[in-house]
Input
Amino acid sequence: MSSPFTSADTVEDILASSLRNAASNPSGKPALCTFVWYNLPNRDCHAKASAGEICCRRLRNGACDYTAQANGCADGLEEYMREFVDPFVEVLASYSSVPVVLLMEPDSLPNLVTNKGDSRCGAATWEAYTQGLSYAVQRVAEVTPHVSIYLDAGKSTRATQICTHT
Output
């Protein structure tokens, strides 16, 4: 059975194709598209189980340097905004007849709380999450009013973890 969700880590790979297919629905009514938007700089800095493509700082070998927290995340944020957010929003805007739901940066908000004691998730990561998510939500809301945004605030097991470990 196919999933009703489409993972959209790169705009070039699937976004335009998915929206084009939805717009040409044989019923004449565009199909609803649901995308997971998940590419913040330093994503998953603690566990690194789902590390993203964008880093605040890179090592010489191209891997994320999670220890470089003191100087902020200007480079990573610039890459996120110009190479991920803006092209993604541009494609969404060109399919304004297609209803879209975006699940934006799942786990990002709860990770800010649960990872606050990890040195790999310090000031640069905090900047990436807060400024990156703010920019992305504002761009989507301003440019694509046909898109509904869902911000993940965590799950109940996270809430228990936050309450018992703070």
Summary: The first strand starts at residue 6 and ends at 7. The radius of gyration is 17 Å. Helices lie at 11-23, 74-93, 108-114, 123-143, 156-165. The CA atoms of residues 17 and 75 lie 29 Å apart.
